[in-house]
Amino acid sequence: MMERAAALDAADPLAAYRDRFVPAPVVAYLDGNSLGRPLLATRDNLVRFVDQDWGDRLIRAWDEGWTETPTTLGDTIGRVALGAAPGQTVVGDSTTVMLYKVARAALDARPARTEIVLDTENFPTDRYVLEGIAAERGATLRWIDADPATGVTASQVAGVVGPETAIVLLSHVAYRSGYLADVPAITAVAHDAGALVIWDLCHSVGVVPMEVDAWGVDIAVGCTYKYLNGGPGAPAFAYVTTALQETARQPIQGWMGSADPFAMGPRYEPAPGIRQFVSGTPPVLGMLPMRDMLNLIDEAGLDAIRAKSVALTEFVLELADELLVPLGVRVSTPRDAALRGGHVTLDHPAFREIVPLLWKRGVLPDFRPPHGMRVGLSPLSTSFTEVAEGLQIVGDELGQQQ
């Protein structure tokens, strides 16, 4: 096992990128799909920002670039990670707030329709936000009862959308199982019914290549602290296709999304284009780390990152079959790489108790109820040896429970 891991590391064309990250005093960091590790460049750039951009330029820096960071950084995310042309992606609030804004805008853009389609296995924020909007706007929720071990398919969506469907909200990669949805097919089904689709890209952006423009995506949201390594609480992004920007009006009308913020006018007039989806003062400091990671992704190439991601998850499945399945572990992630994102979920009734013990031993996966352990693999910072050592310790702890 360790010999095979060493051979995989020796053959890894992205191995050198691991040296770009701040060293972590752990045996195995297996939670890169929840919080990406910081880059050495980020540490240096944060100090430089304090000393120069903030410390030297002070308030003048707003006129020297800060005000435009939501859209300039949004364009970088679009180009590097989304397959989106400029002028359609903006960075701003938390994922929850960004989702609220785009979902309200989408619902209001289909005023004659009253139904919202979503699935039972989606991340809580997605479900909670849509429940709140439905109550607020008098809309009806239509639920897809998704299989926790797989995800939502185009045929399931076709079975629930209709002339009353305003929006469909789904995740590109399921947060529990890691199931990779067929975005083009599902989007086409929703469009055939006259509905708009919102894609949650939180668990796919930065690790799964995508072409949102070519796929006909209407709207998407995503966080930046997972595979984009923006750090805890890093602001999220929203993508709104150019075709919708004239009709979709976001509901949180803040001064920084107005046509002329510093006119301090008596009435709100939205800024043209994607800028209107900004509300308050841009979180400039919170945007710095993701810029460094986007540069790294751009340098390495998202196709190469996806190739290593597939290799890492294949290795996890191989080790799970060898070390953990005999101990009663069930693999709850698709084995077909074409249906799998960047993490693997393993289920066992003892994982709730075992994960804290693993943390004490320097192995850091995460736990998702009722009994799932997610092995999250960030390709540029994770080695095969790290994975092998970590899962071997998982097997040791499980063995002690039996």
UniProtKB/TrEMBL annotation:
<dbReference type="Pfam" id="PF22580">
    <property type="entry name" value="KYNU_C"/>
</dbReference>
<keyword id="KW-0663">Pyridoxal phosphate</keyword>
<dbReference type="InterPro" id="IPR015424">
    <property type="entry name" value="PyrdxlP-dep_Trfase"/>
</dbReference>
<comment type="function">
    <text>Catalyzes the cleavage of L-kynurenine (L-Kyn) and L-3-hydroxykynurenine (L-3OHKyn) into anthranilic acid (AA) and 3-hydroxyanthranilic acid (3-OHAA), respectively.</text>
</comment>
<dbReference type="GO" id="GO:0097053">
    <property type="term" value="P:L-kynurenine catabolic process"/>
</dbReference>
<comment type="pathway">
    <text>Cofactor biosynthesis; NAD(+) biosynthesis; quinolinate from L-kynurenine: step 2/3.</text>
</comment>
<comment type="subunit">
    <text>Homodimer.</text>
</comment>
<dbReference type="GO" id="GO:0030429">
    <property type="term" value="F:kynureninase activity"/>
</dbReference>
<comment type="similarity">
    <text>Belongs to the DegT/DnrJ/EryC1 family.</text>
</comment>
<protein>
    <recommendedName>
        <fullName>Kynureninase</fullName>
        <ecNumber>3.7.1.3</ecNumber>
    </recommendedName>
</protein>
<dbReference type="GO" id="GO:0019441">
    <property type="term" value="P:L-tryptophan catabolic process to kynurenine"/>
</dbReference>
<dbReference type="GO" id="GO:0009435">
    <property type="term" value="P:NAD+ biosynthetic process"/>
</dbReference>
<dbReference type="InterPro" id="IPR010111">
    <property type="entry name" value="Kynureninase"/>
</dbReference>
<dbReference type="GO" id="GO:0030170">
    <property type="term" value="F:pyridoxal phosphate binding"/>
</dbReference>
<dbReference type="GO" id="GO:0043420">
    <property type="term" value="P:anthranilate metabolic process"/>
</dbReference>
<keyword id="KW-0378">Hydrolase</keyword>
<dbReference type="GO" id="GO:0005737">
    <property type="term" value="C:cytoplasm"/>
</dbReference>
<dbReference type="InterPro" id="IPR015421">
    <property type="entry name" value="PyrdxlP-dep_Trfase_major"/>
</dbReference>
<dbReference type="Pfam" id="PF01041">
    <property type="entry name" value="DegT_DnrJ_EryC1"/>
</dbReference>
<comment type="pathway">
    <text>Amino-acid degradation; L-kynurenine degradation; L-alanine and anthranilate from L-kynurenine: step 1/1.</text>
</comment>
<comment type="similarity">
    <text>Belongs to the kynureninase family.</text>
</comment>
<dbReference type="InterPro" id="IPR015422">
    <property type="entry name" value="PyrdxlP-dep_Trfase_small"/>
</dbReference>
<keyword id="KW-0662">Pyridine nucleotide biosynthesis</keyword>
<dbReference type="InterPro" id="IPR000653">
    <property type="entry name" value="DegT/StrS_aminotransferase"/>
</dbReference>
